[in-house]
């Protein structure tokens, strides 16, 4: 399957629906993407977390700035924000744990 540049496979959503900001949190960076529900990518950003980052409020500022810049660069009304985390979450500590690669069956 070949995709056009800046386009993801559509899911049959209305072309008039407002776009969302997708956020992917990883242990060393945050990636954001402003995308229509039909799959058109309007803007994207990525920011690395400093290796010496120790305060959760500093991490929050980095994430929120990345989201704000992504949304502002598209200048469109937003439907919402979705957040995904790469890896397993340790619910006791609130941290992202290591994730072993597993085959998809």
Automatic annotation (TrEMBL):
InterPro entries: ATPase_NBD (IPR043129). This is ROK family protein.
